[in-house]
């Protein structure tokens, strides 16, 4: 029977020496032969066929002893180890470790004694405990529930209509390497619409389109085609627009060869550098008479409007902080589905730092007290998010409120934009027909070729963008109609009954029933009247503007005293409804049409706010809403029926008290989860009611809203009930027409998103607006409940990046338990057994500690958890990184997600562990089939033709290979390439370890296999962090960009992994650490676990460096198994010749 110390390893030596009943004092590996003859023969064959990995390690006893262990013979008696070689240790670390051998039993753990003297046996790596199985099933079950919910529940309807275009692209070849070093990689194009643009000369306003991550320059075509057609068909014939400075738009677009920007910071910086030079070149084109047909009386352009999609929006903002940025060359930026708040993934340290630098620059600029000190004073930024249908980038990340004040920019969702009213996915936002029309019209509304900047002043641009992109009901939208000059002279009979009594409601079920033009006058209550009254009007007819002759007109009127007839001639239109009577009153009126709010039509036949291709176009409702203070300078609201024949259409207008129409429901989320919220809209209610629920702010919860049918006493409803849910910040509105049941989801306070610069006092909470027919005179019951299953799907988009960090928390704790057991007993237990030990103590304690400490240190007033922060934030300083840690939210209600995510990651780690086992066994089986020899082959021939399990190259060859790889990393390839190579080598090592462990089932072989497998699992979890950069590098090679990769060339970032993997490839088991230095391993893994849980999501790239540090420590432990002397090092180059001289061993 083989006698072996508790920490021995058969594979720790290149060739074990047969010495019966003698305990060899070698590093953690001593063997003697007694009855295990077949094993020794196998070892002899291996040593005869395979070159030795190190002569000094295989022929001389080591001077290092990690732990003086006592070997046991077959009878259970204890043999004393032989005296150690008196040669002093050859390295300082070995000297430290050797000093531990004098410790007695009080200073170190003893190997547990067994009655028969046998060592504890390691279980099979396939075995899984009931606790691990149960935890894994719960975790995987919850993960599947989240995925199922995200694909089946709380889904926004798709409402985009297709767009069509006739594109052509002119490449600007003159923009070459003389202008920028990146011209050989990127290209600049000018878009031209076939049939409209007949040449490539520039004559309008320059627009630059920036594609996003892996985007194409051709993605500009939907918006550019709409702009070309709109100018060709309408604007060029509009004299007022031409006089206002409107010209056609010249769309330039950039071919980035589908660069992967989201994963690589240097690529983002390269694109920003290139685009700044491109803008300089574009502006120069308008000065060149060969390519420009611009009116010479117009000023030369000095700035470009930038349109960015996805990561292109981030590149646009980065351009303004680059050294080659030309001052004031950009003053208008419109982004679509761009993740402004934080990077989509944090796998690259440079992109995380770039985000921080850019956002900090914008914050500092807008925090300046004086405009002259703000380099971004003239810049406006509008971020448009797609909403719930965007599954590529969370729309929460599109928020710009954390670095841009509302005077210079805002965030809006496509479901908010009038006439769009639908969510969009990441690509549809480029081609959606109704959305591209709004974008093109808004851009034309801000251009002004009479200015060198080619745009209107900043304040005017912001008013235009708010008019086109917001609903018109937001507090920041200016009401222009009440302050405009009167354009209509309205004359009415003093004896007419057209004046509505104060407090009355105007109801028109059909227009034109009087057979003549008729005006309805509603007296305006004086400003400061009790009740904070407001005026609201809803109709399904289009309101006429000045000079239009339609069905309906709404005006604000004031009585004018008797004036000469010359004064009346100043009005552009006159409307005499006095019937020739002498007793008449003249009113000076201005139209309310500029302030009309478009609402989706809500009828019994409508299902969605939008209409699709092939469906009948639905005319939207017209809605007006004013506070009394807004229209207080006037005396009447005049509703004029212009049609003289009965026409289908309705009008509802009224003055209502604010207290009657606005309610606030204070309810905690816990109570809402348990009981829901129920309330009723009374029968005597205004046409529009608004309910605010301050506790509804989180993006992680979804709700169900149910509305009861209202009885209308047999009458037909004027319109079906309609609901608008909205947030005041960011601007997100959703409309629900013909409503009975509504699924409510929002993009409010989201995980990992920084807080806004200034929070509005009335901006907290979700609000619901209810439009219901007030003539029905019946109450409406409303019930709001939390959709628990629907809320699970909201976790997918917000927390999918945790799988890049939190599983490492589990793996680190498992490795910690594996090493603790190994150092104590000499057995390196399988990963599944280590996971079971962790689930019994380490993981629950860590998750509970993180949850309790976070809850305890959460400052609900300041809104930050002070325990986990890098800075010592004060109450006067807003911490924009307060949501970077753990689960990314400060709401105590969601702290349960910490243990929940932990359990899910336990299940994911279990699955990966068994996938690695399956892969290892499958590759082992394939290798066995590849080396299969027929049964009639002689044993001697079979032995000669079968290579040993760990037949590794000579040390010299390994050192040369490693040196070449590190040289490539330092010059040409990123270290991620070397890491991927190390993963493949480690996989092959694990396969070979499994092969020898299955052929010779000894404790030492199982130790090596379990150890190699656990290191493989660790490296596999680090691999996703490194793969994106590797993909970027491969992509650069694919587009023939041969310029050396300008980042990720630090050889120290991968050298420990390479050394560790090379050491394991020789079949050496890591020695046991018996001194206090074993706590270093424990502490390293503990720190990795804590960091992965707390900082891993926001700083995932640092997890590679922490794992690399751990690999360095393991390589140091491995290195102490050899005595490094000058003589030993000389054998690295003489090893091959000495092996040949020595010949085969018997």
Automatic annotation (TrEMBL):
Pfam families attached to this UniProt entry: PGAP1, PGAP1_2nd, PGAP1_TMD
Composition skew (Low complexity), residue ranges: 53-63
Presence of the UniProt keyword Hydrolase in the record: yes
Record keyword Transmembrane present: yes
Biased composition (Basic and acidic residues): 41-52, 103-116
Region (Disordered): 1-123
GO MF entry, a single one: phosphatidylinositol deacylase activity
Positions of transmembrane segments: 126-147, 797-815, 893-916, 963-987, 1008-1031, 1051-1071, 1083-1104
Protein's membrane topology: Multi-pass membrane protein
Subcellular location, record wording: Endoplasmic reticulum membrane
UniProt-listed Enzyme Commission number(s): 3.1.-.-
InterPro entries the UniProt entry points to: AB_hydrolase_fold, PGAP1-ab_dom-like, PGAP1/BST1, PGAP1_TMD
A GO BP annotation: protein transport
Domain GPI inositol-deacylase transmembrane: 802-1118
Alphabetized UniProt keyword annotations: Endoplasmic reticulum, Hydrolase, Membrane, Protein transport, Transmembrane, Transmembrane helix, Transport
Function: Involved in inositol deacylation of GPI-anchored proteins which plays important roles in the quality control and ER-associated degradation of GPI-anchored proteins.
The family this protein is said to belong to: Belongs to the GPI inositol-deacylase family.
Family annotation (PANTHER family): GPI INOSITOL-DEACYLASE, NEGATIVE REGULATOR OF VESICLE FORMATION-RELATED
Protein name: GPI inositol-deacylase
Organism from which the protein derives: Parathielavia hyrcaniae
Lineage: Eukaryota, Fungi, Dikarya, Ascomycota, Pezizomycotina
């Amino acid at each position: 029977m083989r006698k072996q110390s508790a920490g021995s390893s058969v594979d720790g030596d290149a060739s074990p020496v047969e010495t019966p009943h003698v305990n060899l004092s070698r590093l953690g590996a001593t063997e003697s032969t007694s009855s295990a003859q077949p094993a020794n023969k196998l070892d002899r064959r291996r040593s005869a066929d395979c070159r030795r990995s190190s002569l000094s390690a295989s022929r001389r006893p080591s001077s290092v002893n990690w732990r003086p262990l006592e070997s046991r013979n077959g009878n259970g008696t204890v043999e004393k180890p032989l005296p150690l070689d008196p040669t002093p240790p050859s390295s300082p670390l070995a000297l430290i470790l050797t000093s531990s051998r004098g410790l007695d039993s009080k200073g170190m753990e003893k190997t547990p004694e067994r009655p028969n003297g046998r060592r504890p046996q390691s279980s099979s790596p396939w075995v899984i405990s009931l606790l691990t199985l149960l935890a894994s099933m719960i975790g995987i079950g919850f993960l599947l529930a989240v995925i199922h919910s995200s694909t089946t529940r709380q889904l926004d309807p798709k409402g985009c209509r297709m767009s069509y275009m006739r594109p052509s692209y002119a490449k600007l070849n003159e923009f070459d390497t003389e202008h920028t070093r990146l011209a050989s990689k990127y290209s600049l194009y000018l878009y031209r619409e076939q049939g409209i643009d007949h040449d490539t000369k520039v004559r309008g306003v320059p627009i630059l389109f920036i594609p996003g991550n892996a985007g194409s320059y051709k993605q500009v075509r939907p918006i550019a085609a709409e702009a070309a057609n709109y100018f060709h068909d309408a604007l060029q014939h509009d004299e007022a627009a031409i006089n206002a400075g409107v010209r056609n738009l010249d769309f330039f677009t950039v071919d980035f060869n589908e660069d992967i920007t989201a994963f690589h910071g240097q690529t983002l910086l390269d694109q920003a550098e290139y685009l700044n030079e491109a803008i300089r070149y574009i502006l120069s084109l308008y000065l060149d008479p060969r390519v420009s047909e611009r009116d010479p009386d117009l000023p030369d352009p000095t700035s470009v409007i930038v349109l960015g999609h996805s990561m292109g929006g981030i590149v646009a903002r980065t351009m303004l902080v680059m050294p080659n940025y030309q001052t004031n060359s950009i003053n208008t930026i419109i982004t679509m589905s761009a993740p402004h708040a934080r990077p989509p993934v944090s796998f690259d340290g440079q992109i995380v730092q770039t985000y921080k630098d850019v956002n900090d620059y914008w914050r500092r600029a807008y925090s300046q007290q004086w405009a002259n000190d703000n380099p971004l004073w003239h810049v406006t930024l509008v971020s448009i998010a797609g909403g719930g249908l965007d599954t590529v980038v969370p729309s929460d990340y599109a928020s710009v409120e954390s670095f841009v004040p509302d005077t210079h920019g805002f965030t809006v969702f496509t479901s908010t934009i009038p006439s769009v009213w639908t969510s969009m996915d990441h690509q549809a936002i480029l081609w959606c027909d109704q959305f591209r029309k709004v974008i093109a019209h808004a851009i034309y509304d801000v251009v002004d070729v009479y200015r060198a900047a080619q745009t209107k002043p900043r304040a005017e641009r912001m008013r235009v963008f708010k008019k086109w992109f917001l609903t018109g009901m937001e507090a920041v939208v200016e009401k222009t109609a009440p302050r405009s000059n009167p354009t209509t002279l309205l004359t009415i009979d003093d004896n007419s009954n057209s004046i509505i009594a104060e407090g009355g409601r105007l109801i028109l079920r059909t227009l034109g029933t009087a057979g003549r033009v008729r005006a309805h006058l509603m007296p305006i209550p004086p400003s400061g009247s009790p009740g904070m009254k407001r005026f609201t009007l809803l109709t399904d007819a289009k309101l006429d503007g000045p000079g239009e002759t339609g069905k309906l007109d709404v005006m604000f009127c004031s009585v004018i005293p008797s004036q000469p007839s010359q004064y009346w001639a100043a009005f552009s239109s006159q409307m005499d409804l006095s019937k020739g009577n002498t007793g008449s009153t003249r009113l000076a009126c201005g139209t309310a049409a500029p302030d009309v709010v478009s609402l989706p039509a809500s009828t019994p036949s409508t299902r969605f706010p939008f209409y699709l291709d092939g469906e009948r176009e639905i005319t939207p409702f017209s809605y007006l809403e004013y506070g009394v203070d807004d229209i207080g300078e006037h005396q009447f609201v005049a509703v004029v029926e212009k049609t003289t024949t009965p026409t289908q259409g309705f009008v509802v207008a009224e003055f209502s008290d604010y207290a009657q129409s606005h309610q606030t429901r204070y309810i905690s989320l816990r109570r809402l989860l348990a009981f829901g919220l129920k309330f009723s809209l009374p029968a005597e209610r205004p046409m529009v009611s608004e309910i605010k629920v301050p506790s509804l702010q989180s993006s992680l919860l979804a709700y169900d809203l149910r509305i009861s049918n209202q009885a209308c006493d047999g009458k037909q409803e004027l319109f079906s009930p309609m609901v608008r849910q909205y947030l005041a910040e960011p601007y997100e509105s959703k409309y629900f027409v013909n409503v009975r049941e509504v699924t409510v989801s929002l993009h409010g306070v989201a995980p990992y998103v920084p807080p806004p610069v200034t929070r509005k006092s009335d901006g907290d909470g979700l609000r619901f607006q209810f439009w219901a027919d007030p003539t029905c005179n019946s109450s409406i019951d409303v019930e709001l409940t939390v959709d628990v299953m629907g809320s699970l799907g909201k976790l997918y988009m917000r927390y999918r990046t945790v799988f890049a960090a939190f599983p490492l928390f589990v793996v680190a704790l498992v490795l910690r338990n594996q090493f603790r057991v190994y150092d104590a007993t000499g057995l390196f237990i399988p990963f599944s057994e280590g996971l079971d030990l962790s689930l019994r103590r380490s993981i629950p304690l860590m998750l509970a500690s993180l949850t309790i400490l976070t809850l305890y240190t959460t400052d609900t007033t300041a809104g930050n958890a002070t325990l986990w922060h890098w800075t010592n934030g004060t109450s006067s300083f807003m911490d924009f990184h307060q949501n970077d840690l753990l689960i990314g939210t400060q709401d105590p209600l969601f702290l349960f997600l910490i243990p929940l995510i932990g359990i899910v990651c336990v299940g994911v780690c279990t699955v990966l562990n068994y996938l690695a086992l399956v892969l290892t066994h499958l590759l082992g089986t394939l290798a066995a089939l590849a080396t299969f020899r027929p049964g009639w082959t002689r044993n001697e021939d079979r032995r000669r033709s079968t290579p040993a399990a760990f037949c590794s190259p000579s040390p010299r060859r390994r050192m040369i290979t490693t040196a070449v790889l590190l040289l490539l990393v330092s010059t040409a390839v990123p270290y991620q390439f070397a890491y991927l190579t190390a993963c493949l080598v480690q996989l092959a090592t694990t396969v070979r370890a499994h092969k020898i462990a299955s052929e010779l089932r000894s404790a030492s072989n199982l130790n090596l296999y379990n150890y190699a497998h656990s290191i493989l699992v660790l490296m596999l979890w680090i691999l996703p962090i490194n793969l994106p950069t590797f993909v970027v590098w491969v992509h650069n090679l694919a587009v023939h960009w041969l310029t050396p990769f300008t980042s990720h060339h630090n050889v120290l970032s991968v050298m420990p992994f390479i050394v560790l993997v090379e050491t394991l490839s020789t079949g050496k088991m890591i020695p046991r650490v018996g001194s206090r230095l074993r706590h270093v391993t424990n502490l390293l893994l503990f720190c990795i676990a804590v960091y992965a849980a707390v900082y891993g999501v926001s700083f995932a790239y640092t997890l590679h460096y922490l794992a690399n540090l751990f690999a360095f420590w393991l390589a140091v432990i491995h290195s102490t198994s050899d005595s490094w002397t000058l003589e030993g090092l000389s054998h690295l180059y003489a090893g091959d010749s000495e092996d040949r001289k020595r010949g085969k061993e018997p």
